[in-house]
Specification:
6-stranded antiparallel β-sheet, 869 residues
Length: 869
C-alpha cells in the first residue's frame, strides 16, 4: 500500500515488513493522533467469509490479553475484502534478530524467559494458547520490555490455509508454503509433531527451546530436513548445555530440561511454575539482582518452599536449627504490620495524611448519619469531628484542606462536586469551583490541580483556570509526584453503557508528555506515589481477580505488592512508604413484604442476596447470590413462602419468573449467549436462540404472554431493548440504539415499555414509553431526569417511580400517567442504616401489595500498613 492510503481511520505511513502472514505497515490513527502497526492479511486469507469471521473472532480474543508482555491489539477491521489488525507500534528488534549476534548473557536470557513466561501465564489463564512461539514472535523493545507477538493468531492462520515449515530458515513464518503440522519446525512440541492437539504445555516446550537457544546460541533439535528435525524432537535428547563454559547454575540446566520433556505430563504444568523456577534460579545463584519483582503468586510459592524447608529442618536438624532458619527468613523478609485507626460502624469515603505525616484527616458516615470530616492524631486513640458535615476530604496542605461540599455516600447521586477550601484550624469553607471530579495540592504549596467537568469533557487545570490536559473519559484520583514534576491520575472509560474501567496515566508537567502506565482495569480504587516518586501504587481489581495493591513504574512495569480477600481503597502514602488504606466488609442484603408476612422483613439468604423479582401473588421470590453461596459464578434461587428453603435454579446474573409460574428465564453472566429457559418443575434447561443480539443484562417476562425483554447489542453497535417470543422466536429490537432501562417495566396490556437514552451523548436521561409493536415513543407526564420507573400498576393508570434521593433510602411514588400528578407510595429503607450505601434494586407486584428491595452495606476500617515494598 502506498503512503496516504486509508484503512478506516488509519492512514498508511510506510511498509515495515512482509511475509506469509501478511504485510505490516506503520500507520497513523487519525482519531487518537498516535502511530500504530497495521497488519493486513494476504489475499488468499480473505477469499472465504468463514476465514474472515474466524480472523475477527481470534483477533478479539487476542485483544482481551491486556498484559505488559503481550502485544496489545487495538482494533480489527475489513476494507475491500481485506481484513486487517491494528496493534501497538513497537521500536526495537525481534529475539531472532538478537540471536543472530550469538548467545545472550545468562542474566539476560533468564530475564527474557521469565517475562515470556509471565505473558504466557496471563494468556493461558484466559484459555488462549499461542501454538507458534519462537524467537521471531518475541520482540525486545528499546526500553527493555519483552513482548510476545501474534498471540492467538497463529492457530487461526494455520487452520485456515495450512502451516508453514522450514528446516533451514531460523524462524520461517507460517504460511510460506502448505503444510500439515501446526507450528514452526524446530520449536514445535512432540505432540504438535504427531498432529495431536496442542495445549498450554506445548507453549512451555517452545519456551524451553528458546531458553536453550538463548543460552547456547544453537537450537536443541536440528537436522538437514523436516523429517530429521521431527525425529529429533520425538526421540532425541538435546545436546547437554556446556554448564562450565557458560557458567550455568545447575538449576538452570534442570529448568530447561524440565521444559523439554517429551511427555507433556512430565513438563512444567503452568507458565507460572516456570516463573517461579526462574525466580528460584536467580535468587539461589545471584546471577541477577536487577530483575523486576515477580507476582504475588510467585512469592506465595516461595513461602511454601520455605515452609517445606522448615519442615525438613524440624525433622532432620531439630527444633533449634529450624527456628534459626525461620528467624533468618523473617529477618530478611519482614512481614507487613498494620495499625487500625477507626472502630465504628459505617463507611469511609476518603482519607489523607497531613504534610508532616502525624495526623490523618478522613471522611466517614458513621452509624447511618451523613458523612463528615474527622481528624485523628496518630499518638491518640480518639478521632475528633471537625464540624464539617456532608463534606469529603479531597487533599490536605499546610494550614488548609480541600473538601467537596454537600456529598452523599450514595454512588448514584452525584458525578461531580463543589470544591472548597477549609482552614485546618477551623472555620467555614470557601467555595472555589463547581463540577470538580478530583483535586490535589502541589506538595509544599496551597496551589491546586483540579479535574474539571465542562460540557462532558474532563479538563485537568493547573493552576485552576489553566487547561493542561483534556479527555472525554472521567478523570479521577489526581496525585502530584513528590517533586511536583508529574501528575498521576485515573482515566475512566464507560464501556457497554454501564461498565466503568480505568487506566493509570502519568502527565509530565514540564514537557506535557502523557504516558499510559496500565491497561484498562475493572476497578481502580485509589492511587498514590511510592518510593519517593519512582512508582505509582494502585489499589485495583482486575477482571476475575481479587482486590490487590499494585505498583507500576514510569516505564509501565506492573508488580503485585499484596492481595486482599476484602475490597480495599488506597487513600494515601506517608513517609517511609506508610500506606493509608481502607478495608471494607461489603454485603448485599434484601428486605421486603411477601404473602403471609404482617410487616416488612429480612429476605437475605447468604452474604450477597440480590432480590430480583416478586411474583404477583407474593408467594415466590426470585433472587441471586454472588457471594459464597453462588459458587464460582452468580447463582439464581427461587424462594417459596411455604417455609421450604430456597432452591438453586441455575447460574446467571438475573432471573425472572413467568406469569404462570412454570418457567424461569436466566440471563448471564454478562456478555454470554444465549439466555436460558429453566422449568420450575420437572424438565431440563433450554438455550434460547440468540440471532444477532448478544445479551448484555436485565431480563424479564411479559405479564401475560410467553415473551421476554432484555438489553442486548449487535456486534459493534450500542445496546438497546429487545423482545423475544420463547422458546423458538428470535430477538427483535423495540427501542433505538443507546436506550436502556434499569427495571424494564412492561405495561399490563403489553403495549408499552419504559426506557431512557443512557448511551446517547447530550440527551436528557428521561424515561419515555416505547410502543412494543412499533411507533414513536410516548412522553411520561411529570417524570423527572434521574427518576426510574419500577413497575406499572395493575390497571396501567399509574407508574411506580423511584425518585431521586441523596439519602440511603428509596422514596417511591405513584405517578398518574394521565395527569402527571404523583403521590407517595412508601420510602424503602432498612431500619439499621449503618454503612448502607444505596438501594440498588426494587421489585413491586402489579397490584402494589408485595415488594422486595436490595441494598448494599459497607463497613470500613481505616488502617496504616507498614513494611510493604
Amino acid at each position: 500500500m502506498k503512503p496516504g492510503t486509508k484503512l478506516g481511520p488509519y492512514e498508511i505511513l510506510a511498509l515495515i515488513g512482509a511475509g506469509g502472514m501478511g504485510e505490516v505497515y506503520r500507520a497513523r490513527d487519525t482519531r487518537l493522533g498516535r502511530d500504530v502497526a497495521v497488519k493486513v492479511l494476504p489475499a488468499e486469507a480473505s477469499e472465504k467469509a468463514e476465514r474472515v469471521r474466524r480472523f475477527a473472532q481470534e483477533a478479539r480474543a487476542a485483544g482481551a490479553l491486556n498484559h505488559p508482555n503481550i502485544l496489545s491489539v487495538y482494533d480489527v477491521g475489513e476494507q475491500d475484502g481485506a481484513p486487517y489488525l491494528v496493534t501497538e507500534l513497537l521500536e526495537g528488534e525481534s529475539l531472532r534478530e538478537r540471536l543472530a549476534e550469538g548467545p545472550l548473557p545468562v542474566r539476560k536470557a533468564v530475564a527474557i524467559a521469565a517475562r515470556i513466561a509471565e505473558g504466557l501465564a496471563a494468556a493461558h489463564e484466559k484459555g488462549i494458547v499461542h501454538r507458534d512461539l519462537k524467537p521471531g514472535n518475541v520482540f525486545l523493545t528499546k526500553d527493555g520490555r519483552v513482548k510476545i507477538l501474534d498471540f492467538g493468531l497463529a492457530r487461526l492462520l494455520q487452520d485456515a490455509w495450512g502451516s508453514g515449515t522450514d528446516s533451514k530458515a531460523p524462524t520461517a513464518e507460517p504460511g510460506t508454503r502448505p503444510g500439515l503440522i501446526v507450528g514452526t519446525m524446530g520449536y514445535m512440541s512432540p505432540e504438535q509433531v504427531k498432529g495431536k492437539p496442542a495445549d498450554a504445555r506445548s507453549d512451555l516446550f517452545a519456551l524451553g527451546v528458546m531458553l536453550y537457544e538463548m543460552l547456547s546460541g544453537k537450537r536443541p533439535f536440528t537436522g538437514d530436513s523436516d523429517a530429521e528435525i521431527m525425529t529429533a524432537i520425538l526421540k532425541d535428547d538435546p545436546p547437554p548445555l556446556d554448564a562450565e563454559k557458560l557458567s550455568l547454575p545447575p538449576l538452570i540446566e534442570r529448568t530447561v530440561a524440565h521444559c523439554l520433556e517429551k511427555n507433556p505430563a512430565r513438563r512444567f504444568q503452568s507458565a507460572q511454575d516456570i516463573v517461579f523456577a526462574l525466580d528460584t534460579v536467580t535468587s539461589a545463584s545471584g546471577i541477577s539482582k536487577a530483575l523486576p519483582p515477580l507476582p504475588e503468586e510467585t512469592r506465595r510459592r516461595r513461602l511454601k518452599w520455605m515452609a517445606a524447608a522448615l519442615a525438613l529442618a524440624l525433622a532432620g536438624a531439630g527444633l533449634a536449627s529450624a527456628g534459626l532458619l525461620w528467624g533468618r527468613y523473617e529477618y530478611l523478609h519482614p512481614l507487613p504490620s498494620h495499625d487500625q485507626l477507626t472502630f465504628r460502624r459505617g463507611i469511609i469515603t476518603s482519607a489523607r495524611f497531613s504534610p508532616d505525616g502525624n495526623t490523618v484527616y478522613y471522611s466517614a458516615a458513621w452509624n447511618g448519619k451523613p458523612q463528615e470530616v474527622f481528624a485523628k492524631r496518630l499518638d491518640t486513640v480518639e478521632s475528633q469531628a471537625m464540624g464539617l458535615a456532608k463534606m469529603q476530604v479531597v487533599s490536605v496542605a499546610s494550614g488548609e484542606m480541600a473538601v467537596f461540599l454537600d456529598v452523599s455516600t450514595n454512588p448514584w447521586v452525584a458525578s461531580s462536586h463543589t470544591l472548597a477550601r477549609v482552614p485546618l484550624s477551623g472555620g467555614k469553607p470557601r467555595r472555589i469551583l463547581q463540577d470538580v471530579k478530583s483535586a490535589d495540592y502541589a506538595p509544599g504549596t496551597t496551589s491546586l490541580a483540579v479535574s474539571h467537568l465542562i460540557n462532558q469533557t474532563c479538563r485537568i487545570e493547573y493552576p485552576i483556570g489553566k487547561v493542561i490536559y483534556e479527555s472525554k473519559g472521567e478523570i479521577t484520583n489526581l496525585r502530584f509526584s513528590p517533586d511536583r514534576a508529574k501528575l498521576a491520575f485515573v482515566e475512566n472509560v464507560v464501556q457497554n453503557a454501564a461498565i466503568v474501567t480505568g487506566r493509570v496515566v502519568c502527565l509530565d508537567l514540564e514537557s506535557g508528555d502523557k504516558r499510559t502506565l496500565t491497561p484498562l482495569w475493572g476497578s481502580v480504587r485509589g492511587i498514590a506515589w511510592g518510593h519517593g516518586g519512582k512508582e505509582v501504587w494502585i489499589a485495583a481489581k482486575k477482571q476475575g481477580k481479587e482486590f490487590s495493591l499494585y505498583a507500576v513504574s514510569l516505564s509501565g512495569h506492573v508488580r503485585t505488592i499484596s492481595r486482599s480477600l476484602e475490597p480495599i481503597m488506597l487513600c494515601d502514602m506517608g513517609p517511609g512508604n506508610r500506606v493509608l488504606l481502607s478495608r471494607e466488609d461489603k454485603r448485599r442484603e434484601s428486605r421486603g413484604l411477601l404473602a403471609g408476612m404482617n410487616q416488612e422483613g429480612d429476605l437475605s439468604w447468604l452474604d450477597a442476596t440480590y432480590a430480583w423479582e416478586v411474583s404477583e401473588d407474593g408467594r415466590t421470590l426470585i433472587f441471586g447470590e454472588v457471594g459464597m453461596g453462588g459458587g464460582p459464578r452468580n447463582a439464581i434461587y427461587m424462594l417459596k413462602t411455604d417455609g421450604s428453603p430456597p432452591v438453586r435454579m441455575g447460574e446467571g446474573d438475573v432471573g425472572s419468573l413467568s406469569s404462570d409460574g412454570r418457567w424461569l428465564v436466566i440471563g448471564g453472566p454478562r456478555g454470554s449467549n444465549p439466555l436460558q429457559l429453566i422449568p420450575t418443575g420437572a424438565g431440563h434447561a433450554v438455550d434460547l436462540p440468540a440471532g444477532t443480539a448478544k445479551y448484555r443484562q436485565g431480563v424479564g417476562w411479559f405479564p401475560k404472554s410467553m415473551r421476554i425483554r432484555f438489553m442486548a447489542a449487535e456486534e459493534g453497535r450500542l445496546w438497546r431493548i429487545w423482545v423475544q417470543d420463547v422458546p423458538d422466536g428470535l430477538p427483535r429490537p423495540i427501542t433505538p440504539e443507546g436506550y436502556s432501562s434499569w427495571y424494564g417495566p412492561v405495561s399490563p396490556d403489553e403495549k408499552y415499555f419504559a426506557a431512557f437514552p443512557w448511551d446517547i451523548v447530550d440527551a436528557k436521561k428521561i424515561y419515555s414509553q416505547f410502543p412494543i409493536d412499533g411507533g414513536e415513543p410516548v412522553p411520561i407526564p411529570g417524570i423527572k431526569e434521574g427518576e426510574h420507573p419500577v413497575q406499572y400498576s395493575a390497571g396501567g393508570r399509574y407508574l411506580y417511580v423511584l425518585e431521586r434521593s441523596e439519602a440511603p433510602a428509596a422514596p417511591v411514588c405513584k405517578l398518574d400517567l394521565k395527569t402527571g400528578r404523583r403521590e407517595r407510595w412508601r420510602v424503602l429503607c432498612p431500619p439499621d442504616l449503618a454503612g448502607v450505601v444505596a438501594i440498588v434494586r426494587i421489585s413491586i407486584s402489579y397490584n402494589g401489595r408485595y415488594y422486595a428491595y436490595c441494598y448494599e452495606r459497607v463497613h470500613s476500617k481505616l488502617l496504616i500498613v507498614n513494611g510493604l515494598s
